[in-house]
Amino acid sequence: MKTTIAQVPEFQGKEVTIGAWLSNKRSSGKIAFLQLRDGTGFIQAVVAKNDVSEEIFQLAKNMTQESSMYITGTIVEDTRSKFGFEMQVSNIELIHESVDYPITPKEHGTEFLMDHRHLWLRSKKQHAIMKIRNEIIRSTYEFFNENGYVKIDPPILTGASAEGTTELFHTKYFDEDAYLSQSGQLYMEAAAMAFGKVFSFGPTFRAEKSKTRRHLIEFWMIEPEMAFVEHEESLQIQENYVSYVVQSVLKNCQLELGILERDITKLEKVKAPFPRISYDDAIQLLKDKGFTDIEWGEDFGAPHETAIAESFDKPVFITNYPAKIKAFYMKPDPNREEVVLCADLIAPEGYGEIIGGSERINDLDLMKQRYEEHGLTGPAYEWYLELRKYGSVPHSGFGLGLERTVAWISGVEHVRETIPFPRLLNRLYP
Q1: Residue-range domain boundaries for the chain
Q2: Under a CB-based contact definition with an 8 Å cutoff, are residues 396 and 233 in contact?
Q3: Please, what CATH class does the domain formed by 117-417 belong to?
Q4: Mean pLDDT of each 10-residue bin along the chain, 430 residues long
Q5: CB under 8 Å to 415, separation ≥6 — which residues?
């Protein structure tokens, strides 16, 4: 019976065959212990000299790291293993012998591992991070599908910036200027006017010359947009979504969280509702914590976000930022026009902002005024203005950065390990 490592609990006491690679091994006299992986998981295979032919035993003892094989044996319970099972081997069929595999069990530098990212993905910890990433994506689709959202795919090539910034990758689109998308949000607003509740999931690009542990040049965003939803309701949707994702990872990735030695007691607290603090109160909190130079009207950096998050044991919303430091499309607070109806969701443990969201301006005249203030001229933005001209409604949306969320939930320090092939300021390889 051919199966996978993930499925072996179903075959306790039975003989199965698995296609696998050798990730590590050790031998002691008349027994060899093979650490196997097959993409679905990791398992130990025990080769006893008395149970196999001399040829098979020598093959097991001499097999090199990352050699591939079909391996056959009986699945037995192993309480010492986190996985809970091991294989007692009866036969091995070598497929390919790997020679001089560069990533050995010894310590390697980060740059070396990043240069060999195509191979580093095979390691147990990197495998665990990618499995958690996959569970976040799976549960994201589940959450939005179960709540009546339609997935819409915005373009990657655009004629203008969504945020009105200069951190854009420029390219030529035949005889026109074009840019790699920073966000699908403007297009998702158009989709929300057609479908009510929508979400996108795709790559975004920021030509930001940053080398911090929180930044990537290319990253993935989940961007819901919702018609007839105002700011308060949007915050509730955000906290319910994040809670849902975290609880799904806790339920379905126990083995992976264990491999990463993640303190899950902190994740277990992540259940809606989340605490909130206004930008005004956040400024005062920072001053009380010794950030005496921060002034009202300034944006928060990583140290500020970390200091604010330390005051809470769940993700925290920072609400109502000054309009002048936020995007042109955010709706002013009707009671206080110098701030906007927005919120950033800050993850605990120093992982920073994982969501930015707001209620959008739905008034045509105010949006025209914002266009003038931000110099948004020309045909590239005309279609967006028309959303306020033909059946405008209150609407809100937000964007969640996948890689920062993966880093936070898995407890990984740097976002470069949370995407299969990271694009950094100094890295376009492999």
Answers
A1: 2-96, 117-417
A2: yes
A3: alpha beta
A4: 97 98 94 98 98 98 98 96 95 98 94 98 98 98 98 94 76 94 96 98 94 93 98 98 98 98 97 98 98 97 96 97 96 97 97 98 97 87 95 98 98 97 96
A5: 213, 214, 215, 216, 219, 403, 404, 406, 407, 422
Closest CA to 16 of 48, 43, 54: 43
- 395: alpha, beta or left? (left if phi > 0; alpha if psi -120 to 50): beta
CATH T-level topology, domain 2-96? OB fold (Dihydrolipoamide Acetyltransferase, E2P) (2.40.50)
- Let me know: does 181 contact 219? Beta carbons within 8 Å: no
Q: What are phi and psi of 154, to 5 degrees?
A: -75, 160
Q: What is the pLDDT of residues 58-113, one digit of tens each?
A: 999 999 999 999 999 999 999 998 899 999 999 999 999 999 999 998 899 999 99
**Across the strands, what pairs with 150?**
198
